[in-house]
Design a protein that fits this description.
- There is one protein chain.
- Helices cover about 0% and strands about 45% of the residues.
- The chain contains no helices and eleven strands.
- The strands form two sheets. Strands 2, 4, 5, 6, 9, 10 and 11 form a seven-stranded mixed β-sheet that branches. A four-stranded antiparallel β-sheet has the order 1-3-8-7, with no helix packed on it.
């Protein structure tokens, strides 16, 4: 019953910006850890950012995106964002939203992904 839907991907030139969104449905509340992952062709899916429950506020960023990406969430509804600035070609990937298994979550849930392409 849980559904995650990403949006906001597209094509951008190096140095450009994009904002990704992830809307969750079927969740009981908005008090869960949420993460962004990405996967480029031939590569493993890797975590790029995470944000804790609204009561915690902690964040995580992979070294490759620190200083360029910002993860945030809507405190009132289950919507996750990823602001991506100064994009590089190596950022090109399919970006996925993840709701990991934990308290009140019975399994890992993933969106279908949104494509980000950075090229000149």
């Amino acid at each position: 019953q849980v559904q995650l839907v990403e949006s906001g991907g597209g094509s951008v030139q190096p140095g450009g910006s994009l904002t990704l969104s992830c809307a969750a449905s079927g969740v009981t509340n908005n008090n869960h850890l949420l993460s962004w992952y990405r996967q480029a062709p031939g590569d493993s899916r890797v975590r790029v950012a995470a944000i804790g429950p609204t009561s915690g506020g902690g964040t995580y960023y992979a070294d490759s995106v620190k200083g360029r990406f910002t993860i945030s969430r809507d405190p009132a509804k289950p919507v996750l964002y990823l602001q991506m600035n100064n994009l590089k070609p190596e950022d090109s990937a399919v970006y996925y939203c993840r709701l990991p298994q934990g308290t009140s979550i019975d399994a890992d849930y993933w969106g279908r992904g949104t494509q980000v392409t950075v090229s000149s």
